[in-house]
C-alpha cells in the first residue's frame, strides 16, 4: 500500500473511532489529558499579551491558565460551545469583569507592555483604549449625534465644536453609517434599525480613538443583511485597530478573522491561523466542535 493510501486508512480508522459510541468517553479522556494549548499562542507583533490567565467566580474556576497574544491589526475569533469561557476571557481584556461581584482574575494581561491589572491603573482610560461592542445594540437614550459625541466630550478629545463635529462625522463614516444618518443626527439613536444601532455603537466606540475593539457576538441579534454590513466593517476596521470577536457562527469566524482560538470548559484548546483551524484542526475537541458533533 502506498503512503497516501496508508494515511487515508489510518485517518479513516481514527474518524470511525471518533464517531463510535465511545466518542463521549474519548472526548472526556482528551479533556483530562489536556496539558497545554495546541498551536502558536504568541504573535510576532503583539498588541495584547496574556499569560496564565485564570478567572474565578467565587469558587468556580471559569478560565484556566490561558495564554494568548492578540496581534496588531488582526482579527482574532474566539469560538467554542456555550459556557466555554470565551466571553469571560474577552471581558478580561478591558477589565469588564471588575463589575461582577466575586470575580477574581489572576495572571498577566499586558496592553502595549503595560499590565492592565496594575493596582494603580485607571480603568476609565483603559476602557477607552480597549472598547467593547456588546451582543445587543445599546445606544444611549440620546440623539445619534450625542451618542457619538459623548465619549470625546468626557475624555477631552475635542477642543472646539468644530473638532467635535469632525470626530462625529469621521466616526460615523468609519462605521459605514454617515450616509444613512447625516440628515437625521438629531433623531434618537434608538430610532434606528437593529443593524444601524449596532453600527452606531461601533461609531461610539471608535470615536474615543481606541487601540483595540472587543466584540461579543455583535451580529447574533441581526438579520443576514445587517450581519454582512458589520462583517464588511470589521474587515475595514482591521486596518486601524486590533479586533477580538466572540462568535457562535463558525462561518462568520472563517470570514472575518485571521486567527482563531477554540475554548472548551474554560481552557484554550487550540489556536492558529483561521484556515488551518477550520480545515485541519489538530485537537480532537476542536475537530468535533467544528464538524458539529457537539456545541
UniProtKB/TrEMBL annotation:
Protein name: Phosphate ABC transporter ATP binding subunit
Pfam families (UniProt xref): ABC_tran
Residue stretches making up the ABC transporter domain: 48-290
GO cellular component, one term: membrane
InterPro entries reported in the protein's UniProt record: AAA+_ATPase, ABC_transporter-like_ATP-bd, ABC_transporter-like_CS, P-loop_NTPase, PstB-like
UniProt KW keywords: ATP-binding, Nucleotide-binding, Phosphate transport, Transport
The organism's place on the tree of life at top rank: Bacteria
CDD domains from the UniProt entry: ABC_PstB_phosphate_transporter
Natural source organism: Methylococcus capsulatus
Composition bias, Polar residues: 1-12
SUPFAM superfamilies: P-loop containing nucleoside triphosphate hydrolases (SSF52540)
Amino acid at each position: 500500500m502506498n503512503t497516501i493510501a496508508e494515511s487515508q486508512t489510518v485517518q479513516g480508522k481514527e474518524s470511525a473511532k471518533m464517531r463510535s459510541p465511545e466518542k463521549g468517553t474519548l472526548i472526556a479522556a482528551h479533556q483530562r489529558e489536556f496539558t497545554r494549548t495546541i498551536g502558536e499562542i504568541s504573535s510576532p507583533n503583539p498588541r495584547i499579551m496574556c499569560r496564565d490567565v485564570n478567572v474565578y467566580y467565587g469558587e468556580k474556576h471559569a478560565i484556566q491558565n490561558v495564554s494568548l497574544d492578540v496581534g496588531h491589526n488582526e482579527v482574532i475569533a474566539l469560538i467554542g460551545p456555550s459556557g466555554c469561557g470565551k466571553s469571560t476571557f474577552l471581558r478580561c481584556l478591558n477589565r469588564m469583569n471588575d463589575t461582577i461581584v466575586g470575580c477574581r482574575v489572576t495572571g498577566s494581561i499586558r496592553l502595549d507592555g503595560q499590565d492592565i491589572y496594575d493596582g494603580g491603573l485607571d480603568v476609565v482610560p483603559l476602557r477607552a483604549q480597549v472598547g467593547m461592542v456588546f451582543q445587543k445594540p445599546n445606544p444611549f437614550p440620546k440623539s445619534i449625534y450625542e451618542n457619538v459625541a459623548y465619549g470625546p466630550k468626557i475624555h477631552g478629545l475635542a477642543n472646539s465644536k468644530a473638532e467635535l463635529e469632525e470626530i462625529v462625522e469621521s466616526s460615523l463614516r468609519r462605521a459605514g453609517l454617515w450616509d444613512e444618518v447625516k440628515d437625521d443626527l438629531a433623531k434618537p439613536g434608538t430610532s434606528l434599525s437593529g443593524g444601524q444601532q449596532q453600527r452606531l455603537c461601533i461609531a461610539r466606540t471608535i470615536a474615543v480613538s481606541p487601540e483595540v475593539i472587543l466584540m461579543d457576538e455583535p451580529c447574533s441579534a441581526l438579520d443576514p443583511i445587517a450581519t454582512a454590513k458589520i462583517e464588511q466593517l470589521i474587515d475595514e476596521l482591521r486596518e486601524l485597530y486590533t479586533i477580538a470577536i466572540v462568535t457562535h457562527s463558525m462561518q462568520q469566524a472563517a470570514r472575518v478573522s485571521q486567527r482563531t482560538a477554540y475554548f472548551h470548559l474554560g481552557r484554550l484548546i487550540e489556536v492558529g491561523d483561521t484556515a488551518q483551524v477550520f480545515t485541519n484542526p489538530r485537537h480532537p475537541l476542536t475537530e468535533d466542535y467544528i464538524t458539529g458533533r457537539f456545541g
